[in-house]
Structures are given as structure tokens and as C-alpha cells.
Amino acid sequence: MAIIPTQTQTTITRAQTTITLAEEEREVKKQAQAKAGRAKRQTRDEAHHVLVRAANIQMIRNMPETDATLTKRPERKGGIVVEDDMRAPFTLQDYVKVGADFRPGMNRHGNCCDCLYLVDCNVTGSSEGTPDDPKFVLKKLFEHHIFQKLDGLVATGGQYEVYIPVIQGDNAGPHAEKEYFNWCKAQCEQRGWHWEPQVPQMPHMNNLDLSVFPCMSRRHCAAARERGGLHVLKQDGIWDAAEDVWRTLPCIGRGERFCWKQDREWHSL
Q1: 109, 116, 194: which is closest to 150 by C-alpha?
Q2: Radius of gyration of the chain from Cα atoms?
Q3: Which of 233, 237, 236, 242 is nearest to 120 (CA)?
Q4: Which helix (H) or strand (E) holds 84?
Q5: Which InterPro entries match (predicted)?
Q6: Residues in contact with 183: Cβ distance below 8 Å, sequence separation at least 6, in sequence order
Q7: pLDDT tens profile 218-245
Q8: CB 87 within 8 A of CB 66
Q9: Which of 173, 231, 256, 258 has its CA at 20 to 30 Å from residue 100's CA atom?
């Protein structure tokens, strides 16, 4: 004997079908959100070593290393100094673009989950640090940016095809790290280039030599505290403090003038 469903039974069946479809939609949406979250976390893990505060990014933009491509020693009136932009490929504009998509829900530091944000970090030779303690790795900067750009400059048909790069660091702590140093030296040897860490007094390549740079750094820290206490200064405040220090170290001014004269002499040859 067949049972004819009543109106009440039909309504319940339709309601159950609606609930089932809603659950499926929620599950699909949940999986899509999880996939997007994994993609964001992967992007964050790849980029967090390069995301530093504005002052550090400005410093990285003006890194003096590999700014010289020489055929001979400049003190012997040979070669040419190449002033080229060797900045890190990830800039503040990229950060603003990547970090524009914020999600609700902030942690106790005011940062959104799975979103990129600026952090303070130390410069290291090869140590990548951790997500909780990120580092700016010089090895990755050279591997993925500087060496590639130099390869293009001296390649066949490049702007400096006949030149041999001579890369001279200033023997600061991260530059002297064994793994980073050996890797950079091996990369240069493979290309027929020269990796020559400079001596403390080498004004034709690094005006802020090892005797001036630590002094300037310490005085800048003191000047910054006079202006902003223990708070992090904005970019203008950082540069104002640097200008104050520059004016109190006359040897820097003399060195800059010497570098300018040397540059004029080399370009007049």
C-alpha cells in the first residue's frame, strides 16, 4: 500500500534539502578560504625576510656594495666606477600593494592574520631567522638580485660587456660571516670576477670607512634619542639626525670632496 506524503512531510523534505545544500556551500567556501590562506602564508614566508621597516628599506636601496665595476685599480688611474641602482627588488610600494587586502581579526600587536606587515630585523650573512625573529639575508639579496643584475651588465651586448666586476665589501660583521663569504667568493670565481673585501682605509670605494662608520652610527643613535626618546623616528627624523651627525664629523665632508675629485679625474681620462 502506497503512502501519500502529506503537505507537512513535503515541507520537511524540502527544508532538509535546503539545509544540505547550505552545508555543501559552506564546506566549499571553507575549502576555498583555506586554500587562499595557504597561498597567503606561502607568500608571507617567501617575503618576510625582505619586509623591513622604512628606514631599513631606505638603507638597502643605497647599499654601496657592487656599485663599482673596474678593469684596473682606480688608484692607478684605470677603470670606471659604475653608479648603478642595486636596491632590493621589494620596495615599500610593493608592500602597500601586497598588504592592501586586509582580513578582519587582529592580534594583540594590531596585525591582521595572514597579512604582510613591516617588522624590524637585523641584517645577516646567511641566517634566515624564523617567522617570529626574521632576518634580512644578504646571501639571498646577492643570489636573486645583485648577481643577476651584474650578469646582465657584463653579458654579451650588455652596457659593460668588456669589464670585470670587482666587488668590495667593508668587512662588517654580516659581510664576514663564513658561509656567506665563501658562497659569494665561489660565485665570483665561477664568473671570473673578483671578491675583495676592502681594508679599513679605502676612501675611493667607501668613504664611511670602518673608523668613521661605527662613530657615525653611535652618534646617530644618540641624536635620534634626543629627538624622539625611545620611540622609532619617522623617516624625516632619521635623516635630520643623520645630517646633524654629518655636520659634526668634518672628516666625512673632506672624504666626500676627495671622492668627488677622484670621480672627476677618472671621467676626464
Answers
A1: 194
A2: 28
A3: 233
A4: none
A5: RNaseH_sf (IPR036397)
A6: 126, 139
A7: 666 777 777 766 666 777 777 777 777 7
A8: no
A9: 231
Q: What are the φ and ψ backbone dihedral angles of 203, each rounded to 5 degrees?
A: -65, -20
The whole-angstrom distance between residue 105's C-alpha and the CA centroid of its chain comes to: 28
Question: How many angstroms separate the CA atoms of 47 and 66, rounded?
Answer: 23
Lookup: cell for 31: 575549502
User: What does the domain layout of the chain look like in residue ranges?
Assistant: 34-198, 203-269
Residue ranges of alpha helices (H) inside the chain are 7-47, 54-61, 92-98, 138-141, 147-154, 178-191, 213-228, 235-248, 250-268
- Full-model pTM: 0.44
> In this structure, what C-alpha cell is assigned to residue 135?
632576518
In this structure, are residues 249 and 212 in contact, taking their beta carbons and an 8 Å threshold? yes
Q: pLDDT, tens digit, for every residue of 24-61?
A: 777 777 777 777 766 655 544 444 333 333 333 333 33
